[in-house]
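Side project, low priority. Logging it here so it doesn't get lost.
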Amino acid sequence: MTNLKSIQAYQQQNRQVYREELTEDTPLGRVKMVRLVLGRAIQELSLAHHAVKSNQTGLKLSSIASAYALIESLIAAIDPKPSPALAEQLFGVYEYCLFTLTKANLENDQDAIEGVMEALKPLYEAWTQIEKELLLAAA
């Protein structure tokens, strides 16, 4: 029993440290947060795709709603100051995703869900690379 309590305490401490890293108002903290939100959105889309395929309406609805909310949070996080052109492009991608998710939800369209995942994957990969570069620069 003591071993389990030690493991739980260790996990809690790590979650707290990670939470602090993510909420840090630093370039690395912001990059981590965007990467995690994109990753979670892709996971939710994968669940939605499976749900449509297996005719699980409840799972489809909750997964699409989660992905939609995550993408809306990405839109809210866009800072146009450093690069207005990049911000406009990101906004366009995210708006496409929201529009397409609405269509996918209404029409049970697996291809539309796949299209949104394909639009987000390169962004996820780019943010992952940026995070690696920032970590290397900080080392």
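Brief comment: The chain has one domain: 26-138.
Revisit when time allows.
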